[in-house]
Write a structure and sequence with these properties.
The structure is a homotetramer. Chain A is of the alpha+beta class. Chain A has three domains: 5-87 and 152-203, Gyrase A, domain 2; 105-146; 210-240, no CATH class. The first copy, chain A, has ten helices and four strands, in the order E-H-H-E-H-E-H-H-H-E-H-H-H-H. In chain A, strands 1-2-4-3 form a four-stranded antiparallel sheet. In chain A, helix 1 (15-27) crosses helix 2. The longest helix of chain A has 23 residues, at 113-135. At the A-D interface, strand 1, helix 1, strand 2, strand 3 and strand 4 of A face strand 1, helix 1, strand 2, strand 3 and strand 4 of D.
C-alpha cells in the first residue's frame, strides 16, 4: 500500500479575490477596468460571507481547484466520479499494466490479524492470476476484470468551490464511507490553506447548514446547538 | 454469469413529437395552446432532420430515456458513470450483500480454456474470502474491497437524447471496450424502436458525423466514403 | 398582454414508480425483469420519503418534466435559463418577426394609472421604431435591440424532478421576483397533480428544509416552527 | 456606448502543463509526487495534440478561464448564458440602478443615418420612462421591464477549456450573431496568448473539425480544403 497522496496541483490564483470581484459585478456598477484592481482583504471576507449567508453560491464557482490524488482504491474512485460537476482524468486499466498493482486495506481488516492475512493472500493470488492472463495473451482491458476494488489508482480531479462544498457536505459526514471521508478531509485542509474564508463553513450539513439528515441515527449534538442558535436569531429578528 | 439485461424502463411519451414541438417554438410564433395539438408525422421527421443538420441538438434534450441495466461488470459501470450528463442509481456494495455475486467473463477469456479455468477458480476464491470477511464481522463496505471488477452490478440510467447521441458516438466505435460497446448497441436498438428518426444518425463518428478520430488505426473505409460524399456536396454548393 | 400560459407538455410516465424502482436497485438485489413489475403505491410513497429524508435526491432525477411556457417576459426567461440543469428551446428574436410583440406589465405599474399610461405609450413607440427599422431593411437580429425586457416570449423547458426542487426552492420564496415566482407556483401545482409525493416538500427553503436564508429580512415565522420541531426531534433521538 | 471590454481576469496557472500532467495520469504510471515536477514544453505540446486528435477532450477541462466582460448588450448575455457548462455572475437589474444605462448600437443601424437617429431617440425615451417610473416609486425590478435588449450589462464568466472550445465552435462561425461573434474572437485571442497549443484548433467547425453545418449556405471553401486533406490521409492509411 503506497498510501493516500493528495496534492493541490493548481488552483485559480487569488480564489477569494476573484469571487469577491464577481460578487461586486452582481450588486454594483463595477465593471471593466474597475475590476482589475485589488479589493481590501476585509471587504473580500465580507463579500464572501454575504454570498454564503444569502445562499448565492453560484459566485463561488469562479474559483476552481485541481487535485492530484493517488493511493486510493477503485472503490473510492467509483464513488468519487459520481460527483458530476467536476472533471476527472484517471489512470486507465485498459492501457496501463497492473502486474505490480498496489492495494488499499480497510482499517477494519488491518485490525483483525486473521482477516488481514486472508486479504493479503487473496491479493497475491489475484496478482498471479492477472499476470498469467497477460502472459497468456489476454489484453489488459480484459485481464483487469480480475482486479479487486482494493486496487490502487490515481486520478486528477478539478472541482469549483461550490461543487467542492457539496462534496465536503456529503463526504465529510461521519456516515460517509471511511476512505472517501479521509480523502475529503485531506482536500478540505488543502483548500482551507489557500481560501480560508471560502471554505470556513465547509463540512457535513451539521456544520455547513446546521442540519442533519441522519434522523434517528444522528448523534444529537447538532440539535442542541441549533436550538440555542435559533433562539438567539429569533430574538434578533423580533427585535428588528 | 446472469448475462446482460437492458430494458427501456420509461421514456418521454411521443419523444419525437415533443422535440418537433420545441423546434417549432424556436423558429415560429407557435406557443401556448398552439403547442398542444398533433403535428403531422412527416413534418416531425422534417423538423428533426433539420435540427440534426444544423447541429441544433439542444432541442433533442427534451426527450429522456430511462434504462434498467443489469448483468454488467463494475468495470463497465465505472466507465458508464463517467458520462456526466445523465442520472444513475446503482446497486450499492455498501448496503447489498455480495456473498453470491455473479461475474462477467470477457469473451477472450472464455475462448481460452486455461485462462477460463484460472479466472473462474479465482472468482471462487474471492467469493470464499468475501464470505469469510463477512463472517469475521467485517462490514460489507469493507469486505467489498476484495470484489473484482468482473463482479456483476445493476444500474438505472437516464439520458436525454442528446447525451445518448454522445454516448453512442463514443461507445459504439469499434475502438471502445467490448462490454460497454455491447451495452451501447443494445441501448441504441431499443431507442431506435421508439424514436427512429431521433436516432437514425446515432453511432460512432464515422456514421454520425462522417469523421474518424482513430488516425492511422482507422480502417480507411470512412475516408473513401467521405471523399465521394464531399465531392457531391461541393457540386451542389457550387451549382447553388 | 396575452397572459401567462403554462402547460405540462410531457413527463416521464409513472414518475413516482420509476423513482421508486431506481431506489430499489440501490438498496436491494432487485434488477432486470424484477424491475418490470408494479410496486404497491404505499411502498412507492415510503421509498420516495426515505430518499427525501436521507437527502438521496439523485434518484429523483429519473423523472423528467417538459413545460410549454408562454406569455412571459424576456426579463423572466433571462433568469430562468440561468438554471443550468435543464433544457430550453426558446422563440428566437433572430428568426421570428416581432412587429406585433405582446408585452408583460408588472402589477406595480398596472396599479399606478400614470405609470401604466407611460409604460404603454412607450411600448407603442418601441413597436413603431422596431417596424421602422425592419422596413428600413435592418435585419431582425439587429432590430430586436430596441425590444424591451417586457417583450413576451415562449419557451419549452425540461427539468428533472431534482432540478425542479431546486428551482422551486429558489423561485417560490417570497423574496424572488414576482413574475418568476408566479411561474414557479404554476409549474409546482402542475407537477404536484401528477407526482404528489415527489413534490410534497417542494417550495421555498422554509418549507422544503426548515431553513430561511433571508436573515434579518425573514418574517420570523420559520424560526418559531423550527424550535418546536427540533425540540421534538431531540426527544426522539435521546429517547432512542 | 462604453464599448466592449473583455479581460481575462484569472485562469488556472500553467494551463497547458496541468492538462499535460492529467494526460500522463491516464496513460502512464505517473502519480503522486511524480506529478509535481515540470514537463518539457515540447512534450506538453505533443500530449495536448494527442488528446485533441483522439478527441479525448475531457482532459482539457482541468484548465479554467475567468473573463470580465462589459459593454455588451442584454441580447448578447441572454445568448451567452445558454452555454450551461460555465459559471456566470451578472450585473443585476433588480438591484442596480439603470437611470444612466449605456446601450449597444448594431453596426447595421450605425451605418444607416435615419435608423440611427430613430434608435438613439428611442433610447432617450426609454431612459426618460425608466426614470419616471423610478421617481413614481416603482421598484427597479419592475421599472427594468422597459429597458431594451440593447442595454449594456457586465458579466463575469468562467469556462473550462473544453467548454470554451464548444463556445468558439458555435460563436466564431460567420453565421453566429455579430455581437457574440465579436466577443468570442476577443476571448479566443486572449486565451490563445496564455495557452496557444490548447486553443490552436479553436474556432468554427470548418477550422476545428473540418466540417461545416451550414449546408447550401456554406461558402464552399471548407469542402475544397477537405477533399485535398482526406486524400492525403487516405494515402497515409493505405500506405500504413
Amino acid at each position: 500500500m503506497a498510501g493516500l497522496k493528495v496534492y493541490l496541483l493548481k488552483y485559480t490564483p487569488d480564489p477569494e479575490l476573484v469571487v469577491a470581484k464577481a460578487a461586486k459585478v452582481c450588486y454594483s456598477r463595477l465593471s471593466g477596468e474597475g475590476l482589475l484592481g485589488e479589493i481590501d482583504k476585509e471587504e473580500v471576507r465580507r463579500l464572501i460571507r454575504m454570498l454564503w449567508n444569502r445562499g448565492h453560491l453560484s459566485v463561488f464557482e469562479h474559483a476552481s481547484f485541481t487535485f492530484s490524488i493517488s493511493g486510493v482504491s477503485r472503490a473510492l474512485t467509483h464513488q468519487l466520479v459520481r460527483h458530476r460537476i467536476a472533471s476527472y482524468s484517471q489512470k486507465s486499466q485498459r492501457y496501463v499494466d497492473e502486474q505490480k498493482f498496489e492495494y488499499v486495506v480497510p482499517p477494519s481488516v488491518i485490525k483483525d490479524p486473521d482477516a488481514r492475512v486472508r486479504f493479503q493472500a487473496l491479493m497475491e493470488e489475484i496478482r498471479a492470476c492477472y499476470e498469467n492472463l497477460i502472459k497468456a495473451g489476454i489484453a489488459r482491458e480484459d485481464a483487469r476484470y480480475v482486479l479487486p476494488n482494493a486496487c490502487e489508482t490515481s486520478i486528477v480531479a478539478t472541482f469549483n468551490a461550490r461543487s467542492l462544498h457539496n462534496f465536503f457536505r456529503l463526504r465529510c459526514c461521519f456516515k460517509a464511507q471511511w476512505e472517501i471521508r479521509r480523502l475529503a478531509y485531506r482536500m478540505l485542509s488543502q483548500v482551507k490553506r489557500v481560501a480560508p474564508t471560502l471554505f470556513e463553513n465547509a463540512g457535513p450539513p451539521c456544520i455547513s447548514e446546521g442540519i442533519c439528515h441522519e434522523g434517528i441515527h444522528s448523534c444529537g449534538r447538532i440539535l442542541r446547538v441549533k436550538i440555542a442558535r435559533e433562539g438567539a436569531r429569533l430574538e434578533r429578528v423580533e427585535g428588528n
